[in-house]
């Protein structure tokens, strides 16, 4: 028997970055907000205290902060001809669990997408002609200029360390000359670079490129954000990705927003509460609330005026499919929208090995790096190249952790004493130049409900059908040699190139930048949400997160995820509350 | 019915007219301010059990036993509902309740006695405006003869003086206001002044630091050789108002004081407190003997591995975030209780309206042995300009045991 609870103004499904952002703005506007989080409470001193946080065994190998695959996972296949099988151990990507979500174990690389990324279809078609058959790239329906104030605010909430490249149209030395115009500088100066970045910078400049410091949510100095939250200087301990920060040096929902929220009387958080479905009114025009289950197995119906899906993109798509909201995407006909345009990233790189010089990769931070953007988005002429999009090329000093990181040159066996000797010889003397490539949507890559496998509540798992496309392969073939050239200019003994070849493999870790499935756009026949991230089907249902991206840009997603959340919540407060209904007429 | 309306009506018809020609609502407002300054809510709310504000029931552990705080809401049976202004004045001024019984000096009437009748009337008016709450009183847990309230009269005979605040005409208005606040409503000496064996403040220990419930409240004299001689008036103001200062942040008991009381006080008053504290000189402390080199080396290694990430390799800290340890008055205190306790149990900077972050230091009890903590503290207390003496492993063991029993 489902227990009925008293109604709230807004219920948030999931409590990571976007949940915290919506909750902060909605409660400040006076609304009664309830957040339901599937996982447990987490905060800095109790869960990842300094000198405890750097536990690689617990947090990475045993997945201390990730979704437990035994409770919920996805099934995977490369194409529609295969049978998808459940991922029983996370590999390629690591969905977060618990308060703060993936925002706790991210690296802190906080980019803004390029202005052209938001109009990928119209911009590329205008410049290069019609997109190829099967490529389902679309415009976001919202522009960079509209999102700019929200990017700016999020950067101040996080205390991003960086150098502005385009301040109100003024191109500035040392920043990224390709970025969209910024209304303000970064709140903090860039991080302290190390030997590797200095070499990367020199090599890139020799090639005529414009290297710039990666915008970082790891603090370059002590900082107090607009909500009064204190962020302490980063110690460059190198345990960011897959770990929580014990020094209050990495921006996470915990360090930037949540303590402010927990003091507000109109905010409630219920942890260990997993939403099973979003409920609809009999006439299918509104959501009435959500049904969730607690740790005792008891089910509750939580009514709300507005529901916002703030879970990880994969779970948001699954919840919509399970709740029968919108039409599921059909790759055969190209019709339907939920699960459409699942995208990811295309990564490759080159490792530099030095003989004498020490790179000391353990002195790192999640977003400690230098990057070049000449080969990203539409920053270069794609005429005759046969692909659109691109990626940034960067040299990070991060994640050189002892269990995970064993860079050895080519030809060294994968185990045994020779391998051990080589690890010892090279561990402190390597660095990497990586390509972080975009993923353009294709008709054959999508999400739907698995016909066979279910979770512990008996609900179908999400099925992921994904492989690299021709666009991806050409993109990586074009960019990887540039990364190699930069790497060769960095003065090492030898360079190993890791090209992106073959089919996508779901096991080796790549990035947790899963996008699409609940995409936004300008046309209800082509997208799940309108430009305000509002469901085309149920006007009081909003969706947050990278699932909104119609395709993935060549950047890390968090900056854009946050800007879209601030943009959407502003529309709820300023427009929707005064006159509830569709904010865009279909 | 809200009590406020009733009181307002009664005040108008009161047989004892207020001394000043003020409206009742402004009296209530003045009373609210003084109540806040006196931090009354902290003791008179069962904070540990999410109790109703001012409804009492908080267990106060004294060296003599446990005392439960009284209900200050205007409930007729269990609160101040039937009290008169006179009764209330007597309680604050002389430590005598409405039935003529002596109050235990855990209630800081030795400080509150400095307040005028007008001021205690205002506090009473404010308390009477609260929603009455009926609560069953907890029996105090005190051994004989202290459970006989008459024993308090002996104590008072020895240590209590009913006095009014006397302005020093040679000092500035701010200094006088500061001294009144510190010695009166804020009752800083309650924690920061050393106590004698019977729990009375020792005059010659005035604000030189005191130990209460195994916390050492540090020396807060701000003049030459004082515990906070290196703090500016601005530092003191920021600490009390924002809960963050260059040197440290309020934690635990003092955190409560800042969160409930001082952050809401007027800037002018807090600056007066700073002005006054800055005039209190102290005698120079004798330097202690330098500890053994082996202990210093062990301590340095422990510091680097466990503490340097936040407090920086040279212990200079991150001002406003993580305390600079080289100048910490808690760390260099004669009594290292607070420092031991913080390492064992961790500490959390008090969130305030201005700075809501809750920077916390994690506990190290699970990780460091008694000897390691003793070495670490010995190292920290004897680096830099100051030789503050060694800390013994036994002192850490005692605190560990105390914490295990109490928490």
Secondary-structure topology with pairs:
The complex is a heterodimer of chains A (586) and B (407).
Chain A: E1 3-4, E2 8-13, H1 17-28, E3 33-36, H2 44-47, H3 56-61, E4 74-77, E5 85-86, H4 120-128, H5 144-158, E6 166-167, E7 170-171, H6 195-206, E8 212-213, E9 223-224, E10 230-231, H7 253-256, H8 258-262, E11 267-270, E12 274-280, E13 287-293, E14 299-309, H9 313-322, E15 340-343, E16 346-353, E17 369-372, E18 391-396, H10 416-426, E19 430-437, E20 446-454, E21 460-465, H11 470-488, E22 494-498, E23 515-517, E24 541-543, H12 558-576
Chain B: H1 3-12, H2 24-37, H3 40-43, E1 59-62, E2 65-68, H4 85-94, H5 109-112, H6 117-128, H7 150-159, H8 173-183, H9 189-192, E3 210-212, E4 215-217, H10 233-242, H11 252-260, H12 267-277, H13 293-306, H14 308-311, H15 337-345, E5 347-348, E6 360-361, H16 370-381, H17 393-406
Helix pairs in contact in B: 2-6, 4-6, 8-12, 10-12, 13-16, 15-17, 16-17
Name its key features.
heterodimer; A: alpha/beta; eight-stranded mixed β-sheet; six-stranded antiparallel β-sheet; B: 407 residues; mainly alpha; two-stranded antiparallel ribbon; 17 helices; globular
Would you write up a description of this structure?
The complex is a heterodimer of chains A (586) and B (407). The model of chain A has no long low-confidence stretch (mean pLDDT 97). Chain A is built from 12 helices and 24 strands. Chain A has 586 residues and is an alpha/beta fold. In chain A, the strands form 6 sheets. In chain A, strands 1, 2, 3, 11, 12, 13, 14 and 24 form an 8-stranded mixed beta sheet that branches. With 407 residues, chain B is mainly alpha-helical. Chain B has helices at residues 3-12, 24-37, 40-43, 85-94, 109-112, 117-128, 150-159, 173-183, 189-192, 233-242, 252-260, 267-277, 293-306, 308-311, 337-345, 370-381, 393-406; strands spanning 59-62, 65-68, 210-212, 215-217, 347-348, 360-361. In chain B, the strands form 3 sheets. Chain B has a two-stranded antiparallel ribbon. In chain B, β1 and β2 (65-68) form a beta hairpin. The A-B interface holds A 44-46, 49-52, 222, 224, 227-230, 232-233, 235, 237, 246-248, 255, 259-260, 263 and B 244, 305-306, 309-310, 318-322, 346, 348, 351, 354-363, 367.
């Amino acid at each position: 028997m489902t227990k009925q609870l008293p109604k709230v103004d807004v219920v948030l499904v999931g409590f990571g970055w976007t949940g915290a952002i919506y909750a902060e703005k909605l409660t400040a506007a006076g609304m009664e907000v309830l957040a339901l989080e599937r996982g447990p409470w987490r905060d800095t001193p109790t869960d990842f205290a300094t000198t405890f946080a750097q536990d690689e065994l617990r947090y990475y190998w045993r997945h201390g902060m990730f979704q437990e695959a035994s409770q919920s996972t996805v099934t995977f296949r490369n194409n529609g001809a295969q049978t998808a099988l459940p991922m029983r151990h996370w590999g390629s990507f690591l969905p977060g669990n618990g308060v703060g979500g993936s925002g706790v174990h991210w690296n802190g690389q906080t980019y803004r997408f390029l202005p052209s990324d938001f109009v990928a279809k119209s911009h590329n078609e205008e410049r290069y002609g019609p997109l190829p058959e099967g490529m389902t790239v679309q415009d976001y329906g919202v522009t960079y200029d509209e999102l700019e104030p929200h990017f700016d605010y999020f950067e101040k909430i996080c205390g991003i360390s960086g150098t502005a490249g385009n301040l109100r149209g003024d191109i500035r030395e040392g920043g990224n000359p390709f970025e969209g115009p910024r209304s303000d500088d970064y709140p903090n100066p860039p991080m302290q670079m190390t030997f590797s970045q200095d070499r990367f910078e020199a090599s890139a400049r020799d090639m005529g490129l414009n290297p710039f410091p990666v915008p970082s949510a790891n603090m370059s100095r002590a900082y107090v954000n607009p909500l009064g939250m204190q962020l302490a200087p980063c110690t460059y301990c190198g345990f960011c990705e897959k770990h929580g920060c014990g020094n209050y040096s990495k921006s996470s929902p915990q360090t930037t927003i949540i303590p402010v929220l927990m003091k507000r009387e109109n905010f409630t958080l219920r942890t260990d509460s997993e939403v099973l479905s979003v409920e609809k009114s009999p006439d299918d025009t509104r959501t009435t609330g959500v049904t969730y289950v607690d740790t005792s197995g008891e089910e509750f119906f939580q009514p709300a005026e507005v529901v916002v899906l703030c879970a990880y993109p994969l779970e948001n798509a699954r919840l919509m499919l399970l709740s029968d909201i919108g039409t599921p995407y059909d790759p055969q006909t190209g019709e339907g929208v939920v699960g459409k345009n699942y995208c990811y990233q295309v990564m490759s790189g080159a490792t530099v090995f030095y003989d004498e010089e020490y790179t000391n990769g353990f002195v790192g931070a999640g977003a400690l790096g230098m990057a070049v953007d000449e080969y990203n988005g539409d920053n270069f002429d794609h005429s005759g190249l046969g692909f659109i999009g691109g990626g940034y090329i960067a040299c990070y000093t991060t994640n050189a952790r002892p269990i995970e990181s064993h860079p050895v040159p080519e030809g060294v066996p994968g185990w045994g004493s020779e391998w051990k000797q080589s690890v010892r010889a090279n561990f402190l003397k390597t660095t990497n130049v990586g390509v972080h490539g975009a993923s353009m949507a294709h008709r054959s890559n999508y999400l739907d409900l698995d016909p066979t496998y279910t979770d512990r509540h008996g609900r179908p798992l999400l099925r992921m059908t994904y492989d690299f496309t021709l666009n991806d392969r050409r993109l990586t073939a074009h960019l990887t040699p540039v990364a190699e050239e930069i790497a060769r200019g960095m003065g090492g003994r030898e360079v190993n190139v890791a090209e992106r070849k073959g089919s996508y493999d779901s096991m080796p870790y790549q990035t947790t930048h899963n996008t699409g499935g609940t995409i936004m756009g300008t046309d209800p026949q082509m997208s799940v949400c309108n430009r305000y991230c509002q469901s085309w089907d149920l006007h009081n249902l909003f969706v947050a997160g990278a699932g909104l991206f119609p395709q993935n840009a060549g950047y890390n997603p968090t900056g854009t995820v946050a800007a879209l959340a601030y943009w959407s919540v502003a529309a709820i407060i300023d427009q929707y509350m005064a006159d509830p209904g569709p904010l865009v007429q279909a | 019915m809200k009590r406020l309306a009733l009181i307002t009506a009664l005040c108008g018809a009161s047989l004892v007219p207020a001394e000043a020609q003020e409206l009742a609502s402004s009296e209530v407002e003045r009373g609210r301010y003084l109540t806040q300054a006196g931090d009354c809510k902290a003791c008179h709310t069962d904070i540990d059990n999410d109790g109703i504000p001012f409804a009492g029931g908080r267990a106060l552990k004294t060296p003599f036993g446990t005392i439960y705080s009284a209900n200050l809401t205007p409930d007729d049976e269990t609160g101040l509902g039937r009290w008169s202004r006179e009764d209330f004045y007597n309680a604050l001024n002389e430590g005598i309740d409405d039935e003529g019984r002596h109050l235990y000096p855990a209630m800081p009437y030795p400080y509150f006695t400095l307040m005028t009748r007008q001021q205690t009337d205002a506090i009473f008016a404010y308390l009477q405006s609260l929603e009455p709450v009926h609560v069953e009183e907890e029996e105090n847990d005190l051994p004989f003869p202290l459970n006989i309230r008459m024993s308090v009269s002996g104590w008072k005979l020895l240590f209590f003086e009913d006095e009014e605040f006397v302005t020093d005409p040679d000092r500035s208005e701010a200094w006088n206001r500061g001294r009144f606040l510190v010695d009166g409503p804020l009752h800083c000496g309650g924690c920061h002044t050393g106590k004698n064996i019977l729990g009375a403040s020792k005059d010659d220990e005035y604000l030189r630091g005191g130990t209460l419930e195994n916390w050492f409240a540090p020396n807060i004299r701000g003049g030459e050789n004082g515990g906070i001689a290196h703090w500016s008036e601005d530092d003191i103001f920021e600490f009390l108002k924002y809960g963050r200062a260059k040197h440290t942040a309020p934690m635990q008991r003092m955190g409560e004081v800042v969160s409930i009381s001082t952050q809401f006080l007027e800037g002018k008053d807090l600056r007066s407190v700073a002005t006054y504290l800055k005039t209190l000189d102290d005698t120079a402390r004798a330097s202690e003997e330098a500890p053994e080199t082996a202990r210093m080396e062990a301590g340095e290694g422990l510091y680097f591995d466990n503490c340097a990430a936040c407090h920086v390799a040279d212990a200079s800290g991150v001002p406003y975030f993580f305390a600079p340890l080289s100048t910490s008055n808690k760390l260099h205190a004669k009594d290292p209780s607070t420092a031991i306790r913080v390492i064992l149990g961790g500490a959390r900077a008090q969130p305030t309206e201005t700075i809501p972050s809750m920077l916390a230091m994690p506990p190290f009890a699970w990780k460091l042995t008694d000897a390691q903590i003793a070495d670490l503290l010995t190292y920290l207390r004897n680096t830099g300009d100051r030789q503050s003496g060694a800390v013994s492993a036994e002192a850490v063991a005692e605190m560990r045991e105390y914490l295990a029993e109490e928490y």
